[in-house]
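To whoever is covering the structure queue this week,

Two jobs came back overnight. Logging them here so there's a record in the thread.

Job A:
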Amino acid sequence: MNKLKCKTKKVDCTVGPICVGKSAYLVNKENDYDYKISSDDIVEQICTKYNISYKQFHKLKIKDPIRVEQRNRFDQAVEESKQHESVVWDLTNLTRNDRARIMRHYPNAEFHAIVFTFKGWEEDILKLSHERFQLTGKFIPPKVFASMCERYEPVSMSEGFSEIKSINMISLILKAKIKHEVVLCL
């Protein structure tokens, strides 16, 4: 692929394990970005194309042609993002290395971290993850969630971020869920 000059001026990185509201938060912010990179969106497209479940996709061997296609689409999305001024990476981005890898793609951009609260909410997140599986078929084993929590490295300005924003979507999701349940009971 012919690499063009990077036009990106601002990159926001979501930070947090699965099911903490990263994508839900971004739904209300979609006008803030010219381009969104989401591995989950690409996986969903691949699953639809090959008529397989999210769980089946993640059980495929890393060299399976379907997984290779997903990685190629992701790499293509990264290259396409460089032609946009404002980009958001909707991924877990749990470690300093994960975040540094993103920054290497955009040499002249300003970086913001959007860190999603999860410490102390693990039990609620696992319940929400189970509910999400029932609704969408997206299955994340509890041991994978536990591994994500263990790998998490707190975000620091020293990584190159000009802003770090902390968001607690879990409390908002639970409040909205309770309101919805109350309305259903009326």
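Job B:
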Amino acid sequence: MKKLFFRLLLLFLVYYIIQYAYSLFSKGYVKDYKIINEYEFEVNEKYSSNEKGEYDNYFITVKVNGDEFYFQTFHDFNKQKKVVKNLHYYKNNNISCIYPEFIDNAQLFDVVCMKDGIYYNYSSFVDANKISDFVSSLKNYKKITNNLNNYETHNLIKIYTDNVVSNHYIGISNYRGVSIVKKGKNSNITDVKLFDKDIYKRPISFYVSNYYVTADYTEKLYFSTFDVVDLTNGKARELNFKEEISFDSYVLGVVGDSAYILDKTNKVEYEVDLSGFKVLAIGNVDTGVRVYENGTWKNIKMQDAIKKGVKFTYDTVDKNTIIHNQTSKKSGYIYYLTTNNNKCDVYKSSVQNDSKKTFLFTMSSCKNQVLYVDDYIYYIDKGNLNYYSDNLGVNTLLSYNELNFNNNIIIGGYKNTK
């Protein structure tokens, strides 16, 4: 009897180990189910995992009353299935709205409304007053607001402490180095001083991954050192190299863990490789200049590159819209920056269904600096550095009057996933 018991126990253990291993290494699943209350909702739940270069994610399609809604989330449900617990729906004339509740009670989305084929979040919906009764009836919904009550002031920068995102490290260049905004116990901002005197223009500066990098502007005509600051810990170190790069150079762009510099005086292209912490000469008059265009590398003549002031491109332009493909091929987003009445309307769609757009926010110009950090989008507008995310809406990270007129300030960001 004991032998039979242990054999059964062993079989159960083997079974659960196999199930666990399958769950751990599985590429995901597709699950169809229904949620029925006042309405009947058809839910298609697609979970993708263990894809190289991709984030594990849920892509959820909901059909109800002839309408379709889409939700993509990177939230960790511990690989559980049927993660949507309940759905609330409203329809009146040309407006349809839905609010999803999830099994761990996390509020991952705002109330989402559809009008004229475009999705809107309740917090930025111009017709929000028309659905106020529906929103008020949602017991488990917390209205998304931009919390500006709590702040700290640092060198004319006002940081809104409730809006600082955990594990995000945001760099803002200043006259003597860089300021780092991150979640902290006593303060949410740190200055890293690189120069003893104010240097108002540092065009040979850039962000790569978690690093802020700037040329050694204590030199005169040529430099052979980059100052490198790690945004995650504020530590600075020097990247020295044998070559002398002319200050008559400019940043071509950043791809992966490298930035690329074109020295117009010496007619040399350099790769600044932060992963290997080295500087390499990769192009000259004979070999030409390597240029990155929307995912493709190509070579052009040195003379043409200098004459045209060529830079890397990451976006495509369709009439009055800048289109930016962000994050990854299977789980990322496509952002659309559309000029409208001298302002810029920003939308996004998931690469898993790029036929449906969600309106995010309006900013003063499509030329404003924009920063993509995973599924967050940061942007400078009217002296503020704001960001948007699906679960938090639009929030103001900081206010700094200098952002209104100083185009030499550059922002960068990094998310620590460890």
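Note for Job B: The first helix runs from residue 2 to 25.

Please reply-all if you pick these up so we don't duplicate work.
Q.
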